[in-house]
Design brief:
heterotrimer; A alpha+beta (96); B alpha+beta (107); C mainly alpha (503); A: alpha+beta; Phenol Hydroxylase P2 Protein; four-stranded antiparallel sheet; three-stranded antiparallel sheet; 2 helices; C: 503 residues; mainly alpha; Ribonucleotide Reductase, subunit A; two-stranded antiparallel ribbon; 4% strand
């Protein structure tokens, strides 16, 4: 099995916790092709192309203010590069 | 100097033979018995006769396997060298096994 | 007054606190970043994607700690250790505390060094955060696992053992190799290779193993640390790309380090392979499956096509690792089984169910080469004995593991390579370890090899009991699990529980 012609996925593994539930819903809303895989204690969120996490979307679902820095409390691992991280959004994708 | 450094990088080898006086480290591999996860490492005098090395070091170790028969080993070889004529009862040095060398046998 | 953006705050608290000294040559302030041959032209082009500043760092780390210690308290109060699948599982925890926790501490020390000695303020601050993270990991691991130390063996003297015990020289020498390298090699070895490339092969087996086996405390620690690890992964990949982008001349140097540190890390992880296939009563997945997912799929098919852009190819000797996935874990656990009389963990023959799981997970090799060994061990046990290796093994000069590895594709022939340097012979388990030695022999001739040190009289005496005392071990720390105090305690506590609940 080689990588030729295979589309590389990007993604993030998140802790399965109360706060993360809203985070995952927000990611699903902003990334239509996303796939979720539930494992003990963990949710694997993957897509092709790029994965976007928007502060506004998370705040809407969480019902309170949320800083993108807070994302650190939920993240277990990620696949791809963190291409952007500012006050409003985080973008993960492969560069080349 | 293969090591990149800001100074002259040159240190003595920790296990050089002179640290062992008249002894050497010798490895022994029972090539066809994987019960023994790896070859054994012994410390023995260079002048030790083969019969002593076998009886005092190899046999007790190999007897960890209850099925070991001290008469069974054959095909004694020095790694990178030749066969060992155990009948001639050479010293370890005479077998040609050097410090940290390897001897193999089969049963 | 408007709140500063993340970008502005980051710039103010890192780059804007830096200055170029006029009173001294910058090369004197930063003496370590030129001698490795790596060329950096613009340190300012390195930026931390997380854009952490000291205020947000402290805030979020404090929150993680509070959450974790609450769980540890509850674990202690609820006698959480009784929820484990079996006390046999704790041998994985012993391996972790003795082998991994000390490496966290060493990482803390060295990232502290880098926090001073890297020229750029961005990388310096990232290194400082990582240094504090690693100390946090050391502390939280000790606190978490101390809960088990109250009831089980092997956990009472990890620090002394790490410095002296034969199997622990494997992780210790791995890290010492990195600590004694220059800053750029260290960053390639640890930040990139260990904390990015190979990280899932270390973390997932231990933390999922904890989760699957009722070890709530370690599992919680794992999740708490993983959020720090995502920053470490980012630093690892970020610093590699930074070095690759700074100058074309860096590429061959970095390729060599990627080659070296893949192999050193892979050999170190063989202890994890043995752990996940044999020490977990409830299995997560086989080493083979983990390797296929985390290394072959995610890294070789995910990361490396990305790095091709820079002229980087997959590591040398990776083909051997792919071939070895079919049998390597069995070889290494067999080493541990052979020598657990001299270790601070127990080993035992897998149950019939576990042997069948191993057969199913390794259809091409287990029944042919390794089940016969377990059958033989069982025979010996049935007649009242226990197979232990009655001697000391041959060690690889580089990875320091007993040389139980075999020729690629031939699990029946032990692999031996050697080199001569200044009229002395050195032995290796593989082409990979030999290649590492031949590149820098002056370094590896100084290796403190446990077996050779015992024979030089540097380990407390000539007998096994003398050596074990010098190792800081106590009776019951090692040996056969079936005869261990751990098992006796476990059976007693669970018999009580069963009797108490029977009405």
């Amino acid at each position: 099995m080689t990588g030729t012609g295979k589309v590389r996925r990007v993604g993030v593994d998140l802790q399965d916790s109360d706060d993360t539930r809203s985070l995952v819903e927000a990611i699903e809303a902003d990334n239509p092709d996303v796939e979720l895989l539930h494992m003990p204690g963990l949710v694997k969120v993957t897509t092709t192309g790029e994965l976007v996490i928007r502060r506004e979307s998370v705040e809407k679902l969480l019902g309170r203010e949320w800083e993108t820095h807070e994302f650190q409390l939920s993240i277990v691992s990620y696949s791809g590069n963190i291409a952007e991280w500012d006050d409003d959004k985080i973008v993960i994708k492969w560069e080349h | 100097m293969t090591v990149k450094a800001l100074y002259d990088y040159d240190y003595p080898a920790k296990d050089r033979q002179e640290n062992f006086g008249d002894d050497i480290l010798v490895h022994v591999l029972w090539a066809n018995n994987l019960m023994f996860c790896a070859a054994a490492c012994f410390r023995a005098p260079k002048a030790m006769p083969w019969s002593d090395f076998k009886a005092q070091m190899i046999d007790p170790w190999a007897s960890s396997d209850p099925g070991y028969d001290p008469a069974a080993p054959a095909g004694w070889q020095v790694d990178g060298g030749g066969a060992i004529d155990t009948g001639a009862n050479p010293t370890l040095e005479e077998t040609g096994v050097g410090h940290k060398g390897l001897i193999t046998f089969r049963t | 007054m408007a709140k500063l953006s993340m970008r502005e705050r980051y710039s103010l608290l890192t780059r804007d606190l830096d200055w170029t000294p006029t009173y001294v040559d910058p090369k004197i302030v930063y003496p370590y970043t030129r001698y490795e041959g790596i060329k950096i032209h613009d340190w300012d082009s390195w930026e931390d994607p997380f854009r952490l500043t000291v205020d947000s760092y402290c805030k979020y780390q404090a929150e993680k700690d509070k959450k974790l210690y609450a769980v540890i308290d509850s674990f202690a109060q609820g006698q959480g250790h009784l929820l484990l699948t079996d006390a046999r599982y704790l041998n994985a925890v012993k391996l972790f505390l003795q082998g991994v926790t000390p490496l966290e501490y060493q990482a803390h020390r060295h990232f502290g060094f880098l926090a001073r000695h890297l020229d750029g303020p961005g990388p310096r601050f990232a290194a400082l955060c990582q240094s504090i993270d690693e100390l946090r990991h050391t502390q939280t691991e000790i606190h978490t696992i101390s809960q088990y130390n109250k009831y089980y063996g092997g956990l009472h003297n990890w620090s002394q053992m790490h410095d002296r015990v034969w199997y622990l020289s494997v992780p210790k020498s791995f890290f010492d190799d990195g600590l004694s390298a220059g800053p750029f090699e260290f960053l390639t070895a640890i930040s990139f290779s260990f904390e990015y490339f190979l990280t899932n092969l270390l973390f997932v087996p231990f933390m999922s193993g904890a989760s699957f086996n009722g070890d709530l405390a370690t599992m919680t620690f794992g999740f708490s640390a993983q959020s720090d690890e995502s920053r470490h992964m980012t630093l690892g990949l970020g610093v590699l790309k930074f070095m690759l982008e700074q100058d074309e001349d860096n590429v061959p140097i970095l390729q060599d380090w990627i080659d070296k540190w893949f192999w050193r890390g892979y050999r170190l992880l063989s202890l994890v392979a043995a752990m996940m296939d044999y020490m977990l009563p409830k299995k997560v997945m086989s080493w083979k499956e983990a390797f296929e997912l985390y290394l072959e799929e995610q890294m070789l098919n995910g990361l490396f096509p990305d790095l091709e852009y820079y002229g980087i190819r997959p590591p040398r000797h990776v083909e051997q690792a792919i071939t070895e996935k079919e049998y390597m874990s069995h070889q290494v656990y067999w080493v541990l089984y052979n020598f657990s009389h001299a270790a601070a963990f127990n080993t035992t023959i897998p149950t019939a169910e576990e042997l069948d799981w191993l057969s199913a997970s390794y259809p091409d090799t287990f029944d042919r080469y390794y089940r016969p060994l377990w059958d033989r061990a069982q025979q010996i046990a049935d007649s009242g004995g226990r197979f232990f290796y009655g001697g000391l093994p041959m060690l690889c000069q580089v990875c320091q593991i007993p040389m139980g590895f075999t020729e690629p594709g031939d699990p029946t022939t032990i692999s031996v390579r050697s080199s001569e340097f200044r009229q002395e012979r050195y032995n290796f388990c593989s082409d990979g370890c030999k290649w590492i030695f031949d590149r820098e022999p002056e370094k590896y001739v100084q290796a403190w090899l446990p077996v050779h040190q015992i024979y030089q009289g540097n380990c407390g005496g000539a007998s096994i009991p003398d050596v074990l005392a010098w190792y800081g071990m106590q009776p019951g720390d090692g040996g056969e699990y079936g005869a261990s105090p751990d098992k006796a305690s476990w059976d007693e506590w669970h018999a009580q529980a069963a009797a108490g609940g029977a009405e």
